[in-house]
Design a protein that fits this description.
Layout: E1 14-19, H1 25-34, E2 39-44, H2 56-74, E3 78-81, H3 84-97, E4 102-104, H4 109-115, E5 120-125, H5 127-131, H6 133-142, E6 147-152, H7 155-164, H8 171-182, E7 192-195, H9 204-210, E8 216-218, H10 221-234, E9 247-250, H11 258-262, E10 269-272
Parallel strand pairs: 1-2, 1-3, 2-9, 3-4, 5-6, 5-7, 7-8, 9-10
Amino acid sequence: MFKQSALPDTPPPSALVFDSGVGAISIAREIRRLIPGLTLHLGIDNGFYPYGNKSEEELRPRILEQVKAMMAHCGADILIVGCNTASTLALPQLRSTLEEPVVGVVPAVKPAAGASRSRTIALIATEGTVNRKYTRELIAQFANGNRIINVAAPELVQLAEKKLRGEAVSARDLEPVLHRVFRTAGGDQVDIAVLACTHFPLLRDELEQFAPRSIQWVDSGEAIARRVRWWVDELQLTLPGTPQPSRLITSAADRSGTIAQAFREFAPLSEPLAPGS
């Protein structure tokens, strides 16, 4: 069922990291750190960005369409859905549709529940993820009696992208979100915050710096990288010593160059998916 890179003249093993924006960088960095020889293609549905304020009825078919097109375009061996919204909406359908293995990202509720001493956890996410049935079921299954304070923080997406443009993120920028975490009912007991959007780990340093007290900030990036490593071994993919050039695949033209600039550390070749866009 799954593809293998066995012949010497086949392209080197690669994975597609899919997202609506540049938050997938946090996942891609962890994969690059753990599996440096795996080539990463970066599939960005900028033509429908942001996902967080759109309905499930709009998003699910769009995600399936774009992922299938991008996988066909780059020929990746593994798909990583580097977006909590897309994962919570479309993982079962993607796994039933694609031949390649699919790795999704979901809020790190289970490890947070196992690590919390105060048994009070803040789940920081976009409005869509906070309110989605999938998230409620995840909490019911894995919170293990811990109190979960849901914190909708859609502004962190824009602040993460601001940081990637080289602009500073200040205490004033983060104050409304930190107020929702620490000044809400039960916030004084929070000892772990789950960063439940792939954009949010990009702001970890600033969140730690400006938080009123020290807590643990957790995300799914390292766990996702370990799962990808497992699939590389399972598929018996032979990795080169260094990765080959990446592709930056966008669903709409990156006319301002901001997406390419954000992903510059991966030195990708930019390729709009839509012909003539």
